[in-house]
């Protein structure tokens, strides 16, 4: 590939040949971050979503007050823009991870932002199930765990797959924002090279990689959701 | 034997207490179908939820073989729940489970071992005639087939009572017929007690042995179906077998509703009125329905040439019931009185 003379001379743009060397580890870091965060978000946010649904009126154990508290927490977690949340909880992040920069430090605000988001997605997925599912679970002698497992989670799997896809894409976006606090990953690359050093090549490559990544994640998510659906 | 004794259910709301069931007494013998009918708001679905043990009665008992299931909760309730099988409106199958898995659900919830479960599921699907659909998903079945799977699921734990909560509403006539045929055969083959909660009088007329009319949270009328239909003054009887009769034509003195069961009636009774007794008769309307206990009929007549009292006495001697309350009213008044 031909390198434009001007940019090579100014020295701001990373040569195209060197991009893979720069971007591959960063891409790996992005996925490591998103992977860790999604594992926490799916388990904790999933639990919160199930609790939100089942403490509501049509749920397995309706508790109006507990539901209101959970709902309030979920709304609170979702009301701050990610950048603000990230900055606001730095003391907490430091207490948990011992540092305020790097992958571990970014994972904390990403998880905290992701949990209420996923909880609401799970709640919505469960709300879309037929109302009679609970009655079916009860009259067939199901325990609470069996009812939640079979008549709720299993029945909602296609919608949950879509929720995970949506959440993963959000987390990829958050990981890029987390780049501003030195989280690593391609967001960090875009900020340090693209934004601070006006490195157009890195900026363009980052954009292309992010677009392709999101397209692929969405495509796979749709495929999985479709495979889980029944006639 | 299933007995419901003095069942009350109320809900406390911000606006105060709402009493939905105000003392329901109902017993369903083995091998019989009792239909619970009534307008919407009468308490049918609350009663259904109490019987299927989805809601706890405020007071009163639900006795299955002498054991009060209404008072149970938690683990004890889960264990005893198997005595009552419930069939829901729209079958309520789980969409991501195959037909066989849906039927196996109660067995799996109770931890029945795998090969026993498979055997029982095959047996149940065979019973409802859907063995070849075992691996299909509910979305691939017709409404009637889905409801038969729902019945198989309700039977999985060998219940003593089968509760059908509007199980045929929304089904086409052919599917309704299949489902009712199945309930009918289950009643006789397995000696099940069946409670049919429904608003469809056609359904009731086809399969029920007894009918309980629910109104305002109480049982307004309860009796054997053929007796209700054969009582010309019964409002439930009129709903079960409506006459759609014409008004009394000029030249006749009064109209009367006569009800009968075929096994005790001479079919030629209308002509006998004229030939043997010189009474002029106009046939204003009639309905005759085959029932598994015999043919039921209700006829509305215009009459001239005899007094109402003499006519009632005469018909009574032939095993026909004329309703004195229906005398000298035109059809519109009769319908209004029954509504």
From TrEMBL, chain A:
Keyword hit for Membrane: yes
Record-linked SUPFAM superfamilies: MetI-like (SSF161098)
Topology with respect to the bilayer: Multi-pass membrane protein
Keywords linked to the UniProt accession: Cell membrane, Membrane, Transmembrane, Transmembrane helix, Transport
Segments passing through the bilayer: 31-54, 66-89, 101-122, 174-195, 202-221
InterPro entries: AA_ABC_Transporter_Permease (IPR051322), MetI-like (IPR000515), MetI-like_sf (IPR035906)
Keyword Amino-acid biosynthesis: no
Every ABC transmembrane type-1 domain range: 27-221
Subcellular location: Cell membrane
Pfam families: BPD_transp_1 (PF00528)
Family the UniProt entry places it in: Belongs to the binding-protein-dependent transport system permease family.
UniProt-recorded name of the protein: ABC transporter permease
Species in which this protein is naturally found: Glutamicibacter nicotianae (Arthrobacter nicotianae)
UniProtKB/TrEMBL annotation, chain B:
Organism placement in taxonomy: Bacteria, Bacillati, Actinomycetota, Actinomycetes, Micrococcales
Claim: Signal is one of the keywords in the record: no
Name listed for the protein in its UniProt record: Methionine import ATP-binding protein MetN
Gene3D superfamilies: P-loop containing nucleotide triphosphate hydrolases
Organism field: Glutamicibacter nicotianae (Arthrobacter nicotianae)
Keywords: Amino-acid transport, ATP-binding, Cell membrane, Membrane, Nucleotide-binding, Translocase, Transport
Recorded GO MF terms: ATP binding
Residue stretches making up the ABC transporter domain: 2-241
Domain of life (superkingdom): Bacteria
Keyword RNA-binding: no
Cross-referenced InterPro entries: AAA+_ATPase, ABC_transporter-like_ATP-bd, ABC_transporter-like_CS, MetN_ABC_transporter-like, P-loop_NTPase
PANTHER family: AMINO ACID IMPORT ATP-BINDING PROTEIN (PTHR43166), METHIONINE IMPORT ATP-BINDING PROTEIN METN (PTHR43166:SF30)
């Amino acid at each position: 590939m031909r390198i434009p003379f001007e940019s090579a001379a100014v020295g701001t743009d990373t040569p195209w040949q060197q991009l893979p060397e720069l971007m591959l580890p960063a891409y790996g870091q992005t996925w490591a971050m998103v992977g860790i965060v999604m594992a926490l978000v799916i388990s904790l946010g999933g639990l919160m979503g199930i609790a939100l649904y089942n403490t509501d009126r049509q749920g397995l154990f309706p508790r109006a007050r507990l539901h209101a508290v959970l709902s309030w927490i979920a709304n609170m977690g979702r009301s701050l823009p990610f950048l603000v949340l990230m900055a606001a909880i730095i003391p907490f992040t430091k207490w948990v991870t011992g540092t305020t920069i790097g992958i571990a430090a970014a994972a904390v605000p990403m998880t905290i932002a992701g949990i209420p988001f996923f909880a609401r997605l799970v709640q919505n997925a469960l709300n879309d199930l037929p109302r009679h599912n609970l009655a079916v679970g009860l009259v067939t002698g199901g325990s609470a765990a069996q009812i939640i497992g079979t008549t709720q989670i299993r029945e909602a799997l296609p919608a949950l797959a879509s929720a995970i896809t949506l959440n993963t894409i959000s987390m990829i976006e958050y990981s890029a924002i987390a780049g501003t606090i030195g989280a690593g990953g391609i967001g960090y690359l875009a900020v340090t090279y693209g934004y601070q050093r006006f490195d157009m090549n890195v900026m363009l490559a980052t954009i292309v990689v992010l677009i392709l990544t999101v397209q692929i994640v969405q495509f796979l998510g749709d495929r999985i959701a479709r495979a889980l659906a029944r006639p | 034997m299933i007995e419901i004794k003095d069942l009350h259910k109320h809900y406390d709301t911000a606006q105060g207490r709402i009493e939905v069931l105000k003392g329901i007494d109902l017993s369903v013998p083995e091998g019989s179908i009792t239909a619970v009918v009534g307008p919407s708001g009468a308490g049918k679905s609350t009663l259904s939820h109490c019987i299927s043990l989805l809601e706890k009665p405020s007071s009163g008992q639900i006795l299955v073989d002498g054991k009060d299931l209404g008072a149970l909760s938690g683990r004890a309730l889960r264990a005893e729940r198997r005595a009552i099988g419930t069939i829901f409106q729209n079958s309520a199958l789980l969409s991501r489970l195959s037909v066989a898995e849906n039927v196996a659900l109660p067995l799996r919830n109770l931890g029945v071992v795998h090969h026993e479960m498979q055997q029982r599921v095959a047996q149940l699907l065979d019973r409802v005639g859907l063995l070849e659909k075992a691996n299909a998903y509910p979305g691939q079945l017709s409404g009637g087939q889905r409801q038969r799977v729902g019945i198989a699921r309700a039977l999985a734990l060998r219940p003593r009572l089968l509760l059908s909560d509007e199980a045929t509403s929304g089904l086409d006539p052919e599917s309704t017929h299949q489902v009712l045929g199945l309930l009918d055969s289950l009643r006789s083959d397995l000696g099940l007690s069946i409670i049919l909660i429904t608003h469809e009088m056609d359904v009731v007329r086809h399969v029920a042995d007894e009918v309980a009319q629910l109104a305002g949270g109480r049982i307004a009328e309860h009796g054997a179906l053929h007796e209700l239909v054969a009582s010309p003054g019964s409002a439930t009887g009129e709903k079960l077998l409506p006459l759609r009769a014409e008004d009394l034509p000029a030249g006749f003195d009064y109209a009367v509703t006569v009800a009968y069961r075929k096994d005790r009636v001479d079919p030629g009774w209308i002509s006998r009125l004229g030939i043997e007794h010189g009474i002029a008769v106009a046939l204003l309307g009639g309905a005759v329905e085959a029932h598994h206990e015999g043919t039921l009929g209700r006829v509305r007549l215009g009459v001239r040439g005899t007094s109402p009292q003499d006519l009632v006495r005469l018909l009574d001697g032939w095993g026909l019931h004329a309703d004195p309350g229906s005398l000298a009213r035109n059809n519109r008044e009769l319908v209004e009185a029954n509504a």
